[in-house]
Amino acid sequence: MNPEGWQILESCTLFKNPHLEVLKETVVLPGETRRREWTVVRRKKAVVIAPMTEAGRFVLIHQCRIPVRKCLWEFPAGQVDQSFEPDHALLRETAVRELEEETGYKLADAGTLIYLGHYYSSQGFSDETPYLFLAKPVVPTGGGHRPETNESILESKTFSTAELSAMIADSVIQDANTLACFARLTAKSLLL
Amino acid sequence: MNPEGWQILESCTLFKNPHLEVLKETVVLPGETRRREWTVVRRKKAVVIAPMTEAGRFVLIHQCRIPVRKCLWEFPAGQVDQSFEPDHALLRETAVRELEEETGYKLADAGTLIYLGHYYSSQGFSDETPYLFLAKPVVPTGGGHRPETNESILESKTFSTAELSAMIADSVIQDANTLACFARLTAKSLLL
Asked: Chain B partners of A20 at a C-beta cutoff of 8 Å?
């Protein structure tokens, strides 16, 4: 990846496993001549889904997160496994699948998946990029949630916008995915 | 770190440099007996500051971010270098210093630093934890911004809440720090 004005002089792998790659990069920024060395963690792209029912309630999942030693209430999310540069169709397909697997809800037949833009989870050290979607309305599949076995989702539950907002104010919601969705939904006036 | 109910059976370093540590962890989750292996990236704690002027305008910085090959408008932020388990006094001290270094604004003598809670930037793979603050009111130092030489801050500028909200709606704001602050400020009814 080498957009206009950016000179990527070197990009060398320091560590790699199936979950991430650590690189040492030597870069000249646009408009500069100085060489900068930086440690970058490369990650798969991701999708996050804010699932809204017909009644305007949001579906959240309660998931154990090993890196932070906590079980958190969050919007469903997942990585795009097939490509490091997924096109929009693949992002939407992944969003629809993750929604159904993780929550036990699915996009209604007449429902829409509204793109809310991407964000960077930690732009100072990683290229990780979640793509945000509002799915509305969602309806129960009847089959409950069927997460992959390596996931640890305890339950899914619906919350009103007022409840979600109170959980954000009180720091019950602690993950960037859910906070970023809420910020975009608020700024786009998409909350009921 | 081993909170109640979590069994951390093994935590072994796969890679380490001054910016991050990659660990392989073997964990038993609360209420389970199954052993899970997980890759975790350990990072320093961080602070993010939403600086608000007396007139209710927000100060943002325009910063080049090597991992994503972009210059982004964001709230000032910085890592806590002195400790992996900083107390609240050290977080506040770091927030006050980063605000002044990165923006050229400082907390007014009669100003307050309001804690907005923490969040996790990417709880699926990292323990990175930014702590969020609202600084109000802030006033120009007169000396401009004085970022550290390894940073690449192009300028700082003030925006109204309406302008910030439009930048979020239009995905001009792309970083988790600023989106998370905006979500907490909205949910706590702290926006003017």
From this structure: 22, 39, 41, 125
- The verdict on A35 and A50 lying in the same domain is no
Nearest to A66 among B15, B38, B186 (CB): B38
How do residues B59-103 score in pLDDT, each as one tens digit? 999 999 999 999 999 999 999 998 889 999 999 999 999 999 999
Q: What is the pTM of this model?
A: 0.96
**Contact between chains at A120 and B182 (C-beta distance less than 8 A):** no
- Tell me, yes or no, whether B100 and B182 share the same domain: yes
What's the CA gap between B118 and A118, in Å, rounded?
21
**Residue B129 near residue B119, CB atoms below 8 Å:** yes
Inter-chain residue contact A123 with B65, CB threshold 8 Å? yes
| Model pLDDT, residue A1 | 67
The answer to whether B126 contacts A129, with C-beta atoms less than 8 Å apart, is no
| ipTM of predicted assembly, 2 dp | 0.96
HEC sequence for chain B: CCCCCCEEEEEEEEEEECCEEEEEEEEECCCCCCCEEEEEEECCCEEEEEEEECCCCEEEEEEEEHHHCEEEEECCEEECCCCCCCCHHHHHHHHHHHHHHHHCEEEEEEEEEEEEEECECCCCCECCCEEEEEEEEEEECCCCCCCCCCCCEEEEEEECHHHHHHHHHCCCCCEHHHHHHHHHHHHCCCCC
Query: Looking at the structure, do residues B84 and B28 belong to the same domain, yes or no?
Result: no
Q: What domain range is A24 assigned to? A: 7-42
Instruction: Please state, in angstroms and as integers, the Cα–Cα distance from residue B154 to each residue in B19, B63, B67, B74, B181, following that order.
Output: 23, 6, 17, 12, 22
Total number of residues shown for chain A: 192
Q: Which of A6, A26, A69, A163 to mutate to test the interface with B (most CBs of B within 10 A)?
A: A69
Enter the tokens of residue A93.
């397909």
Cα–Cα separations (whole angstroms), residue B129 to A114, A162, B41, B62: 29, 26, 12, 22
Same domain, A163 and A92: yes
Strands A46-53 and A130-140: parallel
